[in-house]
Design brief:
205 residues, mainly alpha, 2 domains, 9 helices, 0% strand, elongated
């Protein structure tokens, strides 16, 4: 046995005793070493979790701010043709809806009622192949005007409107029906110009 052997063993014993005294046990000492790795592992797992934007994960204040932002900027993304979404309301109309709808869900439901009214008119006249192109440049401002009239009636005769959704449905259904009749009349005149000329001659006589 060499003197150096005794010295090294003594140093190792003292270092080991200090380590155990500090940690309490060798087992705990190993846990302390592994714990940072566990935290790092959990941290990275969070980044790979599936996205979850459920309202249950946000406070009422956060939800209100989110809704406020979406509604205020609805005319930027609901009427943007670059998104590939169907665009049938002009920005002015979407901005009008943002003043009345409090949440994106309400705006979605509102737009859905407009679409249902369109489908109803088409279904009622499917025997003659009626289609209502909502992206028609003449129809868009008419829809905006009809929506303003709708909200004006709600504000001025609020107590007399029992069901605002039914009233909206009827308003838009009537608009699409009138517009389609006007288009049909134009098409008829274009196909039968001789009748128009005859009417003009009668008016002069």
């Amino acid at each position: 046995m060499k003197a150096t052997d005794v010295y090294l063993r003594g140093e190792f014993g003292r270092k080991s005793s200090q380590t155990f005294a500090t940690s309490g046990s060798s087992k705990n000492g190993l846990n302390l070493y592994r714990e940072p790795k566990e935290r790092d592992k959990n941290r990275y797992n969070i980044d790979t979790q599936k996205l979850n934007f459920s309202t249950a994960r946000f406070s009422p204040d956060e939800i209100e701010k989110q809704n406020h932002d979406l509604i205020n900027h609805a005319n930027d993304f609901l009427t943007n043709e670059d998104t590939g979404l169907p665009v049938f309301l002009e920005p002015e109309a979407v901005q009008l809806l943002s003043l009345w709808c409090r949440t994106p869900q309400q705006m979605r439901r509102f737009i859905g009622i407009i679409l249902n009214a369109k489908y109803r008119v088409e279904k009622d006249h499917q025997d003659i192949g009626v289609l209502i192109p909502l992206d028609d440049e003449e129809l868009k401002p008419l829809m905006t005007k009809a929506l303003r009239r709708y909200f004006n009636v709600l504000r001025s005769n609020e107590k007399h409107i029992k069901n605002v959704e039914n009233y909206l449905y009827g308003t838009m259904q009537n608009l699409f029906g009138v517009w389609r009749n006007q288009q049909a009349a134009r098409e008829y005149v274009a196909k039968h110009p001789e009748e128009q000329n005859t009417d003009n001659e009668r008016s002069w006589n």
